[in-house]
Amino acid sequence: MDFIKERLVSLCIPERSMLYKEKEQIFKDKMDKQKNELKEEYFNYQYFLKLEQKIDSSLLFSKESESVKRAIDYFVYSERSNKG
């Protein structure tokens, strides 16, 4: 779940997207290296990537709602306060 939260943070707070992309690349590299040993996990990883793409498109679509915009603003404020 932390990975999904980090993805949301990177989408809502652009200055954190590089950190997310670096972690994502490390994860991808690790999975690619262990693809043969971790066949089931690698298969699940492919589904996880598809889920991640859905988060991107769902968030963009949801931002059209005023209540969702307020929720995102609160989420961003909360995340920045926790990291500050």
Automatic annotation (TrEMBL):
Identification of the protein by name: Uncharacterized protein
Domain of life: Bacteria
Source organism phylogeny: Bacteria, Pseudomonadati, Pseudomonadota, Gammaproteobacteria, Enterobacterales
